[in-house]
Structures are given as structure tokens and as C-alpha cells.
């Protein structure tokens, strides 16, 4: 008997389709309105992983026709110097979106930096104004955190547009992923449970999920035995491990091999949520540019 294999939700392909739509939206903004959206990315320090993210973001920004501004600051940059740069970017008309790459060095307070970004340019969606809009259901006026948006788009690839009434379990309660995913799924009329490090019997909670989103940062935490047959499994985790052959590789929070035998659909790591996060960052920049210039665009 052949074992059931889950549908693999191809984040790369879905992100490429979104980027195509963004490219034509940007062409319209340039051609009809004389507006070219611009994204500024600020990197403090020389963390190699962050450096790769920032480079990729810049390349993809220009690939869809937008302006890309990269600001690289030394690791010993003071909070005051970073806040000054953020204020300058807030005032810069060529910049419609600002992203400060996290984590920041210890001498810089992350909350103060996030609070300094103009909410209209906060394409990460981490400012309290955008978090508040998402939480109160004013989602159409919010800039929604990119990874969370990407997760919901991937879920809809498997489930279609109507998620009403489905049981969703979100593992992790960070402001960056867990909480915004939970709010978006509530907006979609799911019944949402948020599980975290203090949850009793996480496996049992997961087993009731039609939709399971794992955003924890623990390699292989979610086993096939935690998954309801046919469930949609979104693996947000990015964990670097050394495999049996001694090679470093990236894995998610879900044990892919055992989960594949039970789930209805699952995202791979890499190639699942990651590409969607960058595509949604570009989407937020286009959305921000349209709102700042009062331009009505078709939904992207
Ligand atoms: P975080 O450390 O801020 O939060 C982790 C959450 O997991 C916490 O809320 C904690 O309560 C919960 N948790 C810890 N142990 C648990 C356990 N045993 N059972 C249940 N919950 C547990 O992390 P984050 O920023 O939300 O990121 C989570 C993961 O997602 C990381 O691996 C990160 O690298 C990855 N990530 C990926 C993308 C992407 O684009 N693919 C974007 C952001 C984050």
C-alpha cells in the first residue's frame, strides 16, 4: 500500500506569482501616476544571516521595479544615531517603506526604534498603530506583518478562500509571527487557539487543528503524531542544524518526514514561508506607496 503524501505548498511559486502582480502594479504606478515605490532597509552590524536577508530584499525590490535604499551601519551605532536615520527616512519622499533588520545590537532598544518609524511607512507592520489596527479588525488600514500574511496566503492555496469555522492552532505567540497570524485567522472566522511554551500538552492541542501554524524556533518539534489527518501544516521555523553527514542545513519546526504522511498539505523549509515573507514585504511597500499618495489600486 502506498503511503499518503501531503500536498507540498510551494512558497517559491506562490511568491513568484505575487511578485509578477506587484511588477505590473509598480509599472502602472510609474506610468500613470509618476510614482516609483521605494523601500529602505537598515542593517546595523554585520550578522551574516541578516546580511543575506538584506541583500536578497534589495535584489527582489529592484526586480519588481521599485527603488531600493540600503543603509549599513556599524555594530557600535548608538540608538540616537539609528533614530536620527529613521526620522530622516520618515521625511524622505522617495521612501515609502522602512524596514530595520532585527535583531539589533544590545545597546539599541528595539521598541524605541519600531515606535520611531512612521506607521504609514512601517512595512514590517510592527508599530503599535499597525498592530492595533490588526487587532481591532481594521485590517484594511493596517500594514500587516509579512510572515503572517504569507502564512494565510499559503493556507488558502490548500483550503480555498473560505476558512470559516476551521480549527486553527498557532504554536508561538511572538509579536512578529504568532500573534499576527492568530489575528488574521480570527479575521477569517477560524476558531483560533494560540499555544506556547507554557501550554499543557501541546501535542494534544495540535491534534485538533485543521490548520496548524508552527512558529516556535525548535527543530523537529511537531511530530506526525501531533497532526490531524488531512490538516494544513504551515512551518514558519528556520533552524540551522548539523545533519548526520556533518553538514549544516536549515530545517523547520515540523518533522517533515513524519508530518508528510499525515498532513493534507505542508510547507517545506526552505521554500515555503520564507519566500512569501519577502514577497509580502514588497506587497506592503506597494500598498504603503498607494496609501501615501491616495492612489486606489486593485487588490494585490
Ligand atoms: P520567538 O522566539 O520570538 O517566539 C517563539 C515562540 O514559541 C514563543 O512565543 C514561545 O512561547 C513559543 N515556544 C517556545 N517553545 C515552545 C514549545 N516547546 N511549544 C510551544 N511553543 C513554544 O520566535 P519568532 O520570531 O516568532 O520566530 C519563530 C520561528 O520562525 C524561528 O525559527 C524564526 O527563525 C522563524 N521565522 C521565520 C520567518 C520566515 O520568513 N520564514 C519569519 C520570522 C520568523
Question: What do these coordinates show?
Answer:
This protein is 40% helix and 16% strand. The mean pLDDT is 97. The chain has 10 helices and 11 strands. The strands form 3 sheets. A 6-stranded parallel sheet has the order 1-11-8-7-5-6. A 3-stranded parallel sheet has the order 3-2-4, with helices on both faces. 44% of the residues are buried. The protein folds into 2 domains: 85 residues, Rossmann fold (3-Layer(aba) Sandwich), CATH 3.40.50; 131 residues, NAD(P)-binding Rossmann-like Domain (Rossmann fold). The termini are far apart. With 300 residues, it is of the alpha/beta class. The site of nicotinamide-adenine-dinucleotide (NAD) has 25 residues, from helix 10.
Task: Jot down its keywords.
single chain, 300 residues, Rossmann fold, 2 domains, six-stranded parallel beta sheet, 10 helices, 40% helix, binds nicotinamide-adenine-dinucleotide
Please tell me what the overall shape is: globular
Average pLDDT metric: 97
Helix content: 40-55%
Cα-based radius of gyration, to the nearest Å? 19 Å
Give the CA-CA distance, first to last residue: 43 Å
Q: Strand pairing plus helix content: what structural class?
A: alpha/beta
- What is the H-and-E element order? EHEHEHEHHHEHEHEEEEHEH
The total of beta strands comes to 11
Amino acid at each position: 500500500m502506498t503511503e499518503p503524501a501531503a500536498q507540498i505548498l510551494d512558497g517559491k511559486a506562490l511568491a513568484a506569482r505575487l511578485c509578477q502582480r506587484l511588477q505590473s502594479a509598480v509599472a502602472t504606478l510609474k506610468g500613470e501616476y509618476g510614482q516609483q515605490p521605494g523601500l529602505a532597509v537598515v542593517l546595523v552590524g554585520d550578522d551574516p544571516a541578516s546580511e543575506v536577508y538584506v541583500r536578497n530584499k534589495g535584489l527582489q525590490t529592484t526586480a519588481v521595479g521599485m527603488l531600493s535604499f540600503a543603509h549599513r551601519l556599524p555594530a557600535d551605532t548608538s540608538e540616537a544615531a539609528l533614530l536620527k536615520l529613521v526620522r530622516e527616512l520618515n521625511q524622505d519622499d522617495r521612501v515609502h517603506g522602512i524596514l530595520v533588520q532585527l535583531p539589533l545590537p544590545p545597546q539599541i532598544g528595539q521598541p524605541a526604534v519600531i515606535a520611531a518609524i512612521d506607521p504609514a511607512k512601517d512595512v514590517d507592520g510592527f508599530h503599535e498603530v499597525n498592530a492595533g489596527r490588526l487587532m481591532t479588525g481594521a485590517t484594511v488600514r493596517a500594514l500587516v506583518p509579512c510572515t503572517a500574511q504569507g502564512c494565510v496566503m499559503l493556507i488558502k492555496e490548500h483550503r480555498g478562500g473560505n476558512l470559516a469555522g476551521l480549527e486553527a492552532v498557532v504554536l508561538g505567540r511572538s509579536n512578529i509571527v504568532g500573534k499576527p497570524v492568530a489575528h488574521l485567522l480570527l479575521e477569517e472566522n477560524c476558531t483560533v487557539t494560540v499555544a506556547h511554551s507554557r501550554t499543557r500538552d501541546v501535542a494534544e492541542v495540535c491534534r485538533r487543528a485543521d490548520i496548524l501554524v508552527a512558529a516556535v524556533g525548535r527543530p523537529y518539534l511537531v511530530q506526525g503524531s501531533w497532526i490531524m489527518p488531512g490538516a494544513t501544516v504551515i512551518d514558519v521555523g528556520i533552524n540551522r542544524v548539523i545533519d548526520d553527514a556533518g553538514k549544516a542545513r536549515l530545517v523547520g519546526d515540523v518533522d517533515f518526514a513524519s508530518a508528510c504522511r499525515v498532513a493534507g498539505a505542508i510547507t517545506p523549509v526552505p521554500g515555503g514561508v520564507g519566500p512569501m515573507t519577502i514577497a509580502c514585504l514588497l506587497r506592503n511597500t506597494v500598498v504603503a506607496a498607494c496609501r501615501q499618495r491616495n492612489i486606489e489600486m486593485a487588490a494585490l
